[in-house]
Specification:
2 domains, about 400 residues, Aspartate Aminotransferase, domain 2, three-stranded antiparallel β-sheet, about 15% strand
């Protein structure tokens, strides 16, 4: 039975933001002591560290040997935009969206690139679209894990192996926590600040041989800015995929990413990372299942994310309020937790239904989530008490 007595147990780390995400356990600034500060990223030391970041990424994510991996500007957004502007237009494209970031890619393709043959296949928050409607003779753009809805594709089984189009996958809140089926993916993007808790501003672009072939045989009808260009003189700029970045990277951020990758190896690489995220989700889900005022936004258990866990408040007294009042209740609950320094940045994304969004990726400790669940009950009861006072 919940009361207004504050729980005795507190999360050791209250950082549950969905990006930038919590640093790996035990992280400190000392982890960056070997950073190549003040050195050129084109010097041997810089190139070596950038190449090491690419090689460790390949090893831990189990990226096929014939796929290229590049470090690109502007986080996951830059990596996705680079793929959209460089690859699309050769054939029609199906844009698949079920949350804010997927919807953003639809806007870019329809309103910015203005592709004439672009179909949109959408679903509301909490659900996947009907994936059987996708035509894989066309190019397909989708997110593996909907960061703002907590809905992911269960696997890559919906993608045929003999597809004619390219599959372009924004995997930023999935990579290092979920198993990506690279055989079904031609472009994969993510950023350092998600599952491994790295620093922002750098993106990763992974290309299949089919994607490289498209780059070499197709020239878009529109001009490409320098930071989007992957080819020169009809040839792939191979240096991008060996540590020669398009623009200047932060060597401090590179060092932080290397630290995160080495930590990932220490906990069992991909198997260990997935297991950690799965345990974290299980701790949240067990609480939700026994808590009458809370529910998963993702309706189908098979599609629930193990990283960006999105929850909605279903208490009848709260759902009876108008939408603005419901949103205010959720924001006040989040603010109360932040004031107590037990949870930072767990409000729902601005475009999503009101509620909570709790990051459960591999750098979060399960014990911290278990402690947070106790505080969720306290904050809910405290806000209901305030609501009754105001009435």
């Amino acid at each position: 039975m919940t009361t207004l007595v504050k729980p005795a147990q507190r999360p050791a780390n209250p950082n549950f933001s969905s990006g930038p995400c919590a640093k790996r356990p035990g992280w400190s600034l000392a982890a960056l002591s070997d950073a190549a500060l003040g050195r050129s990223h084109r010097a041997k030391v810089g190139k070596t560290k950038l190449k090491q970041a690419i090689d460790l990424t390949r090893e831990i994510l189990q990226v096929p040997a014939d796929y290229r991996i590049g470090i690109v500007p502007a986080s996951d957004t830059g990596a996705v935009e680079m793929a959209l502007w460089s690859l699309l237009g050769e054939r029609g494209v199906d844009m698949v969206a079920w949350e804010s970031f997927g919807a953003g890619w639809v806007t870019d393709v329809v309103k910015q690139l203005k592709l004439a043959d672009a179909r949109t296949i959408e679903a509301g928050y909490g659900e996947l679209p009907d994936l059987s409607k996708i035509d894989f003779d066309r190019d397909v753009v989708f997110t593996w894990n909907g960061t703002t809805s907590g809905v992911r594709v269960p696997s890559g089984d919906f993608i045929p192996g003999d597809r004619k189009g390219l599959t372009i996958c924004d995997a930023t809140s999935a990579a290092f926590a979920q198993r990506l089926d690279f055989a079904k993916l031609d472009v994969v993007t993510f950023s350092w600040q998600k599952v491994l808790g790295g620093e922002g501003a750098h993106g990763m672009l992974i290309l299949s041989p089919r994607a490289v072939e498209r780059l070499l045989t197709y020239k878009p009808a529109w001009p490409l800015p320098k930071i989007f260009r992957l080819t020169s003189g009809g040839k792939l700029i191979e240096g991008i995929f060996s540590g020669e970045t398009i623009n200047t990277p932060s060597m401090l951020c590179v060092e932080d990413y290397l630290d995160a990758l080495n930590w990932a190896k220490s906990v069992g690489s991909l198997d260990g990372l997935v297991a950690r995220a799965d345990r974290n989700f299980a701790a949240i889900n067990a609480f939700v299942e026994r808590t009458p005022w809370l529910a998963n936004l993702a309706k189908d258990p098979a599609t629930r994310s193990n990283t960006s866990v999105c929850l909605t408040i279903v208490d009848p007294e709260i759902t009876a309020l108008d939408a603005d009042a419901q949103a205010s209740f959720a924001k006040n609950l989040v603010a109360a937790l932040e004031k107590e320094a037990v949870a930072y940045d767990i409000g729902a994304y601005r475009d999503a239904p009101s509620g909570l969004r709790i990051w459960a990726g591999a750098t979060v400790e399960t014990a911290d989530l278990e402690a947070l669940m106790l505080w969720l009950d306290w904050a809910f009861e405290a806000q209901k008490a305030e609501l009754k006072k105001a009435a």
